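Form 12-C: Joint structure prediction
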Amino acid sequence: MTRWLLPGFLAVGVVATLVLIVGPALYAVSLSFYEIPSLTADPVWAGFANYAEVLGSGEFWSALWNGIVYAGLAIILQVVLGIGFALLLNQPFFGRALLRGIAFLPYLLPTVIAVLVFKWMVDGSLGIVTITMDDLGLPPIYWFETETASMVSVILISVWLWTPFVTTTFLAGLQTVPTQLYEAARVDGAGPVRRFFHVTLPSLRPILTVIILLRGVWMFNKFDVIWLTTGGGPLGATEHLPVLSYRMAFKLYDIGSGAAVATLSFFVLMIAVTVYFRVFPIEGGK
Amino acid sequence: MAEVSIRKMRKTFGKVVAVEGVDLEVAKGELIVLLGPSGCGKSTTLRMVAGLESISSGQLLIEGRDVTSLEPKDRDIAMVFQNYALYPHKTIHANMAFGLKMRGMPAAEIARRVDDAARMLDITHLLDRKPGQLSGGQMQRVALGRALVRDPAVFLLDEPLSNLDAKLRARMREEIALLQRRIGKAMLYVTHDQTEAMTLADRIVIMRDGKVQQIGSPLEVYDRPANAFVAGFIGSPEMNLIEAEVAGGRLVLSDGVYLPAPSGAADGPVLAGVRPEALVPTPGGASLQVQGIEQLGSQTLFIGDLGGHRVRSMTGRRDDIAINETITVAAPEAAIHLFDRDSGERLATAGEG
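Section 2 - Result
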């Protein structure tokens, strides 16, 4: 009985992975080598023509750049704010447990709801933010009107939604740092800032490495926030690779090129992750 | 001038009193052991001296300077923690140098001090390693080294040997004693192990429930325990404590079973204490029915019934007595301690003040 337990459990996972992830991924990659002008048209072999076309277009490169800006800034803010909140929530104060719970809430929101709420809050005539700013005599902000503002807005929404992930993970990590290390550092004469950089950060380096990696991959592939707010606009200012791929495949019905963009995006990410692991090895720590 | 003066130092957590008015003067070069069962307040006392725990009331002077409300780093102390508390991501060298670096000491001076301490502790070959690559004993040396390089007025050690195995503990104990004599600094050492206290201390501070029970040299607390608690805590095997009665100059354990009573002892019920090593098999003594025998090699411990009381008697090696045999034991008058049955306090007798 137990002899089959391990292979049995493994088989479930392997089959699920093959059917749900590897299969569709390979199918998508294969699509990128065909010319498919509509969802019903018969694919025509095109070799690397789609890739040549995509890489030759300015759209791909600006989408890649947008993606890097979006993911990069969102991660930096999420990590910095997340660690900050985690440190605050790790201090003893009245109502800490409640606040810890509340801090996690945004993470539980479906993206659609968060985006709709955000749009509503900054609505030009009814939004609470707009009205409050007006009451305070501040000039209005056009959240999704200019290129820079749109990018800032989608980043803000992403930070709002996913900082709790960093906070919670980091907070959990903080509980594992032995208090004696902090006490030793205090006796050694290290103040709060030095204790953070000499005790907390090195101790949580493995956790932080994983947090940044996960958030990085997720942000780079994040589709819904941008699609639901700006749709990639204005003037393609927030269009990153996932949106570009979607627009090519399902708006322009150039499924081959859309698949090519997705495949290239996959390779970019793979290279980035490989480099990341070289620079920040998770195990051993030198 | 005392190196450390602890004056009426108290610690309360809300309504709970963790440490009740400790008074202690520690001289330069003196090794003080704070001893007691867990929860007695010994570690809290040490942590208050370190500055890791605030002092609820009272005063703490180090080298004559009032440091009651100063940060640990400003107290001129160094501490060795129970779990070593070495920075896991730093090399041994960096671990030892950290405290000096934080104080802005020039690199050359840091290097010199670390090298000196490493040589003294025989850990020079470990300086480039990380704590994770070290054994428990080596980590303990590094933790000592980290304290040593600081050259503080007072060393504070919080159960430093409790994570080591018995053999290593005995060896490190000797080394700490040697080291302490060599550097001649004041040292406060917390432990629950009475053997450690007896072997290391210049003076032992025995605590219980946040209160100091007795302060004295190892032999003082061994020979003249201030109360029944100290009597039972100090010494191994434990002192026999027997509810008995003093009557007509004798200590009556039960009908017909007597031990001598110290001269001048008042008649009445007492708690009598006699150490196993003082209660030795003697012809013509009180009858002890042997129920258990522990052979320790050079010594033999009898566990048995003495007039209805379970007692232990220790003597030089004896392998001629079997379980259930009856032997006779006696103790010299001077080895009998008398305590008040209710308060546990030592009762004065003629031979004492």
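Section 3 - Comments
The mean pLDDT of chain B is 92. Chain B has two domains: 4-230, 240-339.
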